[in-house]
Amino acid sequence: MATKETTQELLEEMAAEAEGDGDLDLVGHFAAHADKHEMVRALHLAHGRISTMNDQISSLESELFQTNEIISVVKALERVDTLSEKVEIFTAIMRERLESEVSVFFLYWPNESQFLLEEVFGTILQSQDQCVIRQSSGLFWELTCQGEPFARRDPHGLTRFGRLLECIGLEDTAIELFVPLAIGGLPVGLAAFAPRDLRASMKDDYIRRYAAQASASIKTAMLYETNQKAKQDLDRTLSNLKMLYNIGKVMGQISDLKALLQFIVQEACNTTTAERGVLFLRDDETGRLVGRVAKGLSDATREREVNDGAAEYRTHRLCNLDVERCYQTKSTITLNHVDDTDEAIRGGDGAVLRSVMYTPLIVNDECIGVIKLSNKGAKGVFTAEDEQQISAMASQAAVAINRSQLYNLAIKDELTGLYVRRYFTHWIQEEIKRADRYDTPFAVIMIDIDHFKSINDTFGHQVGDIALVRLAEMIHETIRDSDVASRFGGEEFSLLLPEADGENAVLVAERLRKRVESTVIPEMERAMTISMGVACYPKHGKDETGLIKSADMALYQAKGNGRNQVILWDL
Question: For 144-163, how does the pLDDT look when each residue is reduced to its tens digit (9 = 90+)?
């Protein structure tokens, strides 16, 4: 077909010839015919352009509709806060789009370099805990990082990724299509579906665009929840450190071993919300683990006797084996969800325990005891965090107990358990300061066993030691907790009675004297007697030396007057 330029040239030539021949009518006819032909051609071109523009407009409208739809569903993702809700909405919309009745969704966690199962819908995986996809250099990983949907089967219809699907439990499911979520070539998540029309789904641009938009929302939620968890973990760690610091600080201030053990058990129960607690220490003489303090026993009287040292905490034989096993292995043992009929975990008072945790007390790589906690509150179970907290506390407790034990060895008499003379005189010095500050009196009592040499000579030194121990026990049972008793030397003992005047001190001494003379010692088959001298501050001495000397002179006066009596020093 002639172009516009060619047609114009022909017209000009024909017009020139016609002008030379004088045939003007022929020229006009031909020109009109040519213009009509050109107009028809132009109309055809315009129609083609209009048709193309209509197709483009239709495509743009479709793309705009799809874009608006994607914006709408992405807004739905943004309206929920939690990661699990975002995943749930994403997979629900995708299932509807793909007409899939099942879906599986994995989240990629960079710290672990692996995909972890987040959601399963419409199918059952045999072992969800093992449903993990680890980072690799294989085809599956490469396709996932590209962010493009890919099929379970290759273009020839052959199944691929068989070993991986078997490992994660998807080999027997209807899953056929994998939709990766990625940002900048880095994976965010991976969704898997069983679409009604796999071929059409692979060509559906909506799936790609929706997955790309959802990736940012889900990744943001992951980062937020990760940061929140890190913050919570940090806050919990700081709280635990503060708690441990405070507990350790208090432990360092408690010198009395019994009070220290009770504090440890109390704080261990408070920290884990355990209903019961017992602290066992190894007895050096018998080699047995003995329950020294207890909390939460159903028998309050029994608990008080155990804590006062008047009774031994007894527990089931199999429970003793667990305590011993914890002691020997130096490792925590936790028993949760225990059958109520299990005799192995019955308490010392026969109570049934639901959950038990044994924690060793270790110092210098040596186990010195075990903390046993039972029945976490609200029928709960002991967690890994409980184990960590109590283990940290037990480390501090073991050091404090060891320090207290060493301290007691330094200040207490090995035979009687009473304070030694050096500590007693130091205590008098401190009591003088307190008495001067508050203008209060206090008394000192010196005690001597009558005819103690005769006891040793008649029954032997072993029975003599028994007599000393028995007297120490009676002294301890007679005086107040605030009073201080010591073995002053040999068969001599001494007492310090804060805020007691001479009259009160004599009453305490008389009560002790009567108890001693009425208590038969089986090894001697008779009782013994004691003589006592009493002196008061500041009336009978201005310092510890003068005060002890006055009480000692009163004691010798009592012995000189016939023994088995109490004398208040009289200037």
Answer: 888 889 999 888 888 888 88
Q: What are the backbone angles phi and psi of residue 311, rounded to the nearest 5°?
A: -145, 155
Note the CATH number of domain 254-410.
3.30.450.40
pLDDT of residue 460: 94
Cβ density class 340-371: b for 16+ within 10 Å, e for less: eeeebbbbbbebebbbbbbbbbbbeeebbbbb
pLDDT tens digits, 413-436: 989 989 999 989 999 999 999 999
CATH number of 83-226: 3.30.450.40
Q: Which residues in the chain land under pLDDT 50?
A: 1-2, 4, 340-341, 343-346
Residues 502, 463: Cα–Cα separation, whole Å: 34
What are the C-alpha distances in Å from 228 to residues 86, 142, 223, 239? 17, 31, 8, 16
Q: Could you state, in order of their start, the residue ranges of all structural domains in the chain?
A: 4-65, 83-226, 254-410, 419-568
CATH topology of domain 419-568: Alpha-Beta Plaits (3.30.70)
443: helix, strand or coil:
strand
pLDDT tens-digit profile of 30-88? 555 556 777 777 777 777 777 777 767 666 655 655 566 666 667 777 778 788 998 99
Q: Which residues are bridge partners to 313 per DSSP?
A: 291
User: HSE on the CB side for 287, CA within 13 Å?
Assistant: 1
Contacts 24+ apart (CB under 8 A), 339-345: 343/316, 343/318, 344/316, 344/318, 344/319, 345/316, 345/318, 345/319, 345/374
Handedness of CA 312, 318, 319, 324 (dihedral sign): positive
Give me the DSSP letters along 283-305. -TTT--EEEEEEES-S-HHHHHH
**Is it true that 83-226 and 254-410 share their CATH fold?**
yes
With contact defined as beta carbons under 8 Å apart, do 524 and 456 qualify?
no
Q: Tell me phi and psi for residue 204, to 5 degrees.
A: -75, 110
CB of 133 closer than 8 Å to CB of 104? no
Cβ–Cβ under 8 Å, residues 289 and 281: yes
Concatenated DSSP letters for 377-428? Answer: TTT----HHHHHHHHHHHHHHHHHHHHHHHHHHHHB-TTT-SEEHHHHHHHH
CA distance 106 to 88: 12
